[in-house]
């Protein structure tokens, strides 16, 4: 990530989202999802404007996918950002995909 902005990505199942948090606890980004059994359906990614361009969304995608892999989850990247991220990093996540929606 540029600017060496330190973030930690955690799963917040109560809110149905992965969160990128700064060391002081500030929310710097989120990836909303729905669950269907062992499948994580990524629906939306959001980074506040003050943190845009610092690699937070990419870090969020990378770490959320790593957490999903660690849980042996499958994924459906409905969110346009996650869909691009997964495609740009093929074949790294191909084994986790349930389906890839058509490009917009």
From TrEMBL:
N-acetyltransferase domain sequence ranges: 10-98
TM ranges: none
Pfam family for this entry, one: Acetyltransf_CG
Superkingdom per UniProt: Bacteria
Organism annotation: Myceligenerans crystallogenes
Annotated protein name in UniProt: GNAT family N-acetyltransferase
InterPro entries found in the cross-reference section: Acyl_CoA_acyltransferase (IPR016181), Gcn5-rel_NAT (IPR045057), GNAT_YJDJ (IPR031165)
């Amino acid at each position: 990530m540029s600017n060496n902005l330190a973030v930690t990505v955690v799963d917040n199942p109560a809110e149905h989202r992965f969160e990128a948090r700064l060391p002081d606890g500030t929310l710097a980004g989120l990836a909303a999802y729905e669950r269907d059994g062992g499948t994580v359906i990524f629906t939306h990614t959001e980074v506040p404007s003050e943190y845009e361009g610092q690699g937070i969304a990419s870090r969020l995608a990378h770490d959320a996918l790593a957490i999903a892999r660690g849980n042996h989850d499958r994924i459906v990247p409905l969110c346009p950002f996650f869909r691009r991220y997964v495609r740009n990093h093929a074949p790294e996540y191909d084994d986790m995909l349930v389906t890839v929606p058509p490009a917009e």
